[in-house]
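Page 42, continued from yesterday. The earlier attempt failed because a stray header line got pasted into the input along with the sequence. Redoing it now with the clean sequence only.
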Amino acid sequence: MTVYALHSHSSTLLIEALPDAAPAVRYWGSRLQQSPDPILWEPALPQAGLDEIRPLSIAPTLADGTFLEPALRSHQNGQGWAEQWQLAATQATDTDLVFELVSLSGLIRLHWHVTLDAATDVLAINTQVTNLSEAELSLEQWLTTLPLPREHTDVLTFTGRWVNEFQPRRQSLPIGALELTNLKGRTSHDHFPGLLTGTAGFGANHGDVCAFHLGWSGNHRQRVERNQQGLTQFQAGAHLLPGEVRLAPGAHFTAPVLYATRSSAGFNGIARNFQQFVRQNLMTWPNEGPRPVHINTWEAIYFDHTQEALDNLAEAAAAVGAERYVLDDGWFQGRRDDSAGLGDWTVDESLYPEKLHPLAATLKRTGLEFGLWVEPEMVNPDSNLYRQHPDWVLAIAGQHQPLARQQRILDLTREDVQTYLFDHLNALLNEYPIRYLKWDMNRDLVQAADARGLAATFRQTKALYALLAKLREAHPRVEIESCASGGARMDYGILKHTHRFWLSDCNDAHERQRMQQWAALFFPAEVLGSHIGPAHSHTTGRQHTTTVRAGTALFGHMGIEWDVRQLNDNDRQALTDAIAMHKTWRAVIHGGIRQSLEPVDPNQIAFQVSAEPHHLISVFQQDMPELSVPGSLKIPGLKLGTHYSVSVLLQSEKTGHLMKVVPAWMTRENVQLTGESLATLGLPLPVMDPDSLLVLALTEG
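This time it went through. Structure tokens are written below.
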């Protein structure tokens, strides 16, 4: 028996290779200086059970006797359903471990490969199941599995819905299982494919925490399970529909990548690790330079397209500092509302007699990049494409399938559909100087069967990735946004093929503050689209000042979703100043690490963005303060002996009537405080009204 170790700067993973079973994870925690004595892995054996305790492995099956959920569920005409593994080969380096396992039945080979990115502390686990037999193998389930420390009894998950994404849910892990299953065919609002486990009561800066994320944009399943012996495991994988994966002799199934990381000091360590990992390992930008500020036409003009309106919007947007113009829904043939036209990806010449060339000329003159909205995976029954090819959709013949937003789903697994979509998108990108596609996907998949009636959800997701890869290869300078009714397709799988997420269709700053806070656990700011909407939110009815809306969008990939043609002088100046501020601090926001701060009031959201020598602090008061006198905000992560200048960048206009006197530091110029005092004593905060915002800058020297 051999124990293999992977070390990063702060963690160690120990895996023991067992000759008659799958390898066992013996330790995943803070970095070890030396390997422990194997005697520490031998527990007591209780009465009234099996005569041996099998360790939790990287590939549990129904033959193990742990009585936990197996990673593998497969069979061949009812045989081979409880496989056992033997180790066939091992490869090991300082950063990678590869195990080749073969089942004793000889039916299956498992390739299991973990890579530890030492710089960011993130594990990436790739697995592949191959049919070694001469007959078809039915694969019903593969869940990539990692054992967990038994003291991890708290679980933090994320649910949501349209315009209300990234809702956190914390619960204690029972003896039993916590399972989250998504059957909607896209990543979904309902169950984000990532969660955290940790010691009881873990918080932003305390507790031992593990975090997981499945890089997959289709149906998925996550499980955390603990048994009476205290054995605990996490599992995640694509959720396979009946008959969806049937492996021919020699064929293989490649599972989605599972990403995992850990922290000994709360979930801020998770945010730091994942943000850095995404930047260094997943993102490939098509263009150099800063992320351009958007103007999107949707909430400005909706479907009311005229050349004059679009040109005037471009002029007004350029005047306030926008850098990219995205023509949203309504530009293509027959598209006067959301009931028709999807699938007919040609410009509506009854609306645009010279097609989009006049708009392109306006954008060139005003210095704005050209962006375009598309929804290629969908088709309206009221479209030329559907009338010509009604068989090109995912459906079960003879069954009623509900519509959503009056649209159906094209079968991307068909080569003719792939060719049609690529040809039309390629033609648009060749004809116009488009540098950005807002790629939308506005419905869940129901009865997603191919022309043979076979379940196709898994293959549909793979086909989407292939189409995006082909398009990016043909147009490497074009940037792509993943939008799916807001944040219903946000994961590392789609991020390998895109560059930005539309986090939510809700631009209400009150809701966005919470969404952005939790999304930052998994994603850096530059991939999270955050727009300044109109004062009156059309999804919630709330009203917010320009300062609050702009100060919220400041900390993402900023854009405007507002009819800037209609601004009064005060709003125009406030918006211009906010965009200029974003550009000033953009390098810090898009290059720094965002971490939560422990708020002085339970009704606040507070965070810090750090990129030495600069630190930005944001405090958002969601509801009425709990106490009449607020406390002092402690700011960690500073150099203790260094002095920092403290300045107010943004403060809500209406804040102030709850105070007779503001904190003393706010009345002085050139305030300089030491990192030690800011970390230990903290900065006294003003009394803040509900839905008010304070943004500060701390700079060394």
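Notes: The CA atoms of residues 278 and 523 lie 7 Å apart.
Reminder to self: strip header lines before submitting.
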